Amino acid sequence: MKHLSKALILLATLSLSSCININISGGGTIIGPSGNEESFTSSSWETSNSGWVSDLDGFTYNSLKHAVGVNNTSNGAGATSSFTYTNVSSIEFKYSTTTTSGSGNISVTIGNNSFGTATLTKSGGATPRSATISKTGSTSFDGNIKFTVNCVTNTLYIHSIKVTAESSTPTTPTSIELSKNELSIAPGESKTLTVSLLPRYAIQYKEVSWASSNTSVASVDANGKVTISKTATAGQTAIVTASLKAKSSIKANCAITVADSVVDDGSYTILLYICGADLESKNKLATKDITEILSVKNQPANVNIVMETGGAKSWSTKYGISSKYLERYEVRNGALKKISSLTKASMGKQSTFESFLKWGLETYPASKTSVIFWNHGGAMTGCCFDENYDDGLTPIECHNAFTNVRNQLNITENWEWVGYDCCLMQVQDIALFNSQYFNYMVAAEESEAGEGWDYDTWLDDLYRGEDTETVLSNICDGFVQSYSSAYPGYANDQTLSVLDLTKMDEYKTAFDAFASSMKSVISNSTKEKAFANMLNKNVKSYGGDYYEESEYEELVENYGYHEDWFDKVWDSDSQAYYYYAHGWIFFGTFDALDMFNKLYSSSDFSSIKTTVNACRNALKNVVIHNTAGNEAGESHGLCVFVPLFRYYGADIDYSSSDTLFTSWTNIF
Questions:
Q1: What is the structure's pLDDT at 188?
Q2: HEC profile for 480-540?
């Protein structure tokens, strides 16, 4: 692959093969009705479809420095203009393709009316050419322009769009939403609110003003950061309001309540469970992250970074870490100090993790404690795969370890946060387990690049005493941004999000009601098939990978995989075909909000709209920060596991003893 994934490989035959170099690129020129040019960026067009990217500049294709690309596996991809047009008479697309074969079309809708479709020529290749759609009839076409593309030309590039119309104005938002409708914050503590515009493509009006109804209780800065006065008392309230600068009547409120004071002496312990596996033995990536940790200066005396290493057949010699033992280390002022060497054991065993957790909590007590798992991840199959023992930690084993240690040490207060520097672990079942022990969770919906988090970015924030939500948000932002820097020119499908686990109980209540209504609906075999088709074809899934032709043939011939589970993709670099297998085949995880949105808009499931919408609303309070690359598609921060098909999730245990979402297991 172009990067090494931290996904847990489920089948020995599924190797990490070469990824396809699909030139999804951005930039471009929009020529408006007055002839003026504007940048083809996110200020001009809005898209959340994984087939498009419209906010990158500087890409060159066939000597044209601006292009938007879509590949032939993203049919139906498109974008919506952030401008509203009046009486559009024609739209001209200048485009080119990577090959001279194939066909396709561009369809345009303006407002609620179909404007027309232009055919993409079968020849021409890299030579730019035009496709024009002109108005027919007397209808006045007014509104936002939305175009979608269906192409079988491998990769299509749109270089410019020329819109001829009477006038254009930025789309006016109808409302705004805040990331939270209510917050409970202790004196002296801070939390940050974020704003979403509706409709999403009204992005010319993104600037907002913030105000507090009672600044003696709660203040708010220009970035939405709400801070409770140190002199405030529990129970006091304030209303924080965000309003559009361009139209102050459009606003949204968040109710602020002062929580009980938190006794915090500033002490912090981070327990890092580093199961190196092949990420270390083959690529030295655990050592790389340890080096990042050691590079961060000004570690406070009351901040402890403690780690246990193991799980790899060999370790880099850089720090003298041995593969013959489990070893425990402390980071202090840029140095790695060995605390102990233990008998070698599987890091995928519950007792091994439980021992480290208990030792770390007893040896390094602190006001705030966090736990980080470092290794491969595989959603409901678990994480921390030890290559010496062919064993990994399942979600229920982690759940049991946390419960046992808390009982042994009589711990009742929640720890601060749990993080998974692993692939695919931001799943609602895992989050609900963790909500019994932690306030926050940070993890990825998608497969992580093998390099993992940027420890030297966010540890500096933690050392400076930034609040938890700021630190965790910076983990997400730094990780996704570093991928673009490490792999320039490649599509960024990386994700990382932060969950407020204190809101998981509310979400579970809503989800249980949804599951009950869903069970009744899909007892009808026709509706069950409709749900299956919707998931397969329309809902964002995770953990997919590319395979060479010989690997693809092995999976089909010897392992019962269906040919139509794969998309055949041409790689212009290697001049060969590869086969893309969708993630739902292996892990059965789908973006929860994308699933709810598709269910809500489907006529097949109109009878359960109320419970679906309740889940959507509850989910907004759970996901408090979500960072997704420009190729991450409909990734909103939390996955749902759906073991609906025998051909995926077949080897994954999912019964009432494996999850607290028992209402969901009752369906399947």
A1: 86
A2: HHHHHHHCCCCCCCCEEEEEEHHHHHHHHHHHHHHHHHHHHHCCCHHHHHHHHHHHHHHCC
